[in-house]
Amino acid sequence: MLIDWPALSARCDHAGIPLRGGFHPRDDDGVPPAGDLPAGTLVLLGNAGPSMWRAFSRAREDAPDLALDDWTFAVVSALAAELGAAALFPFTGPPYWPFQRWAQRAEAVYPSPLGILIHPRFGLWHGYRAALVFPERLSLSPRDDLPSPCASCADRPCLRACPVAAFSPGNYDVAACVGHLGAQAGAACMTGGCLSRRACPVGQEHIYPEEQRRFHMRAFRALHAPAQRTRSST
């Protein structure tokens, strides 16, 4: 199925999981075939600001225990079947697909001092939830190669904001972060979201709503806390 970029973008917006850019794969990109055909185009889907959260929240009105990964898988799998594409996800595997590398091929995003990718417009308030691989070589939207906002940020407030100094250049102390989240002193991070992420001045108008920030912090702690408990008991 041939589809132009504006129509694809509108269809993804309607499904609640916005289009985040795309590229024509090279041999070294590690993009798998689209079914039985070589990959012609990879497009990334995800969130930028709170738009995806609104769609996910509506789905949870009828299923309060619905997991974000399950919702993403269902929505994107249906899109892939409709559009004649293959669906890939960062949370299934192995193999685990190189979504961070693909993101930097797809649009102007850059590693931040916190380790996550920063967008010149959305700051740290965005993410990648899935990819669609098309056998066709689709016409892509022109890429806006704005520079990294971190390159001109001398103060680095993100590194100073963490109460337990979990972030340093090239390092993220996950154990210190998770331990803080489990303590009473970590309530501000658990309820309002990571203080370091919130300290970044870029994209403040796109910050996630508080409910979404709490949701992600609970999910992060649940993922990492069991491993921390195992380490502390040995």
Which features would summarize this protein structure in a list?
39% helix, two-stranded antiparallel ribbon, single chain, 9 helices, 234 residues, four-stranded antiparallel beta sheet, disordered C terminus, alpha+beta, 8 strands
Overview of this structure, please?
The chain has 234 residues and is α+β, with helices and mostly antiparallel strands. It has two domains: 5-148, no CATH class; 153-232, no CATH class. It is 39% helix and 14% strand. It has helices at 5-15, 51-60, 68-83, 99-106, 157-161, 174-181, 187-192, 195-199, 210-232; strands at residues 19-23, 41-48, 86-88, 110-111, 117-118, 126-134, 167-168, 171-172. It has a four-stranded antiparallel beta sheet with strand order 1-2-6-3, sandwiched between helices. A two-stranded antiparallel ribbon has the order 4-5. The longest helix has 23 residues, at 210-232. The chain is globular, with a radius of gyration of 19 Å. This is 4Fe-4S ferredoxin-type domain-containing protein. Residues 140-172 form the 4Fe-4S ferredoxin-type domain.
Give a short synopsis of this structure.
The chain is α+β, with helices and mostly antiparallel strands and 234 residues long. The chain has helices at 5-15, 51-60, 68-83, 99-106, 157-161, 174-181, 187-192, 195-199, 210-232; strands spanning 19-23, 41-48, 86-88, 110-111, 117-118, 126-134, 167-168, 171-172.
How does the SSE layout of this entry go?
Elements: H1 5-15, E1 19-23, E2 41-48, H2 51-60, H3 68-83, E3 86-88, H4 99-106, E4 110-111, E5 117-118, E6 126-134, H5 157-161, E7 167-168, E8 171-172, H6 174-181, H7 187-192, H8 195-199, H9 210-232
Helix pairs in contact: 6-9
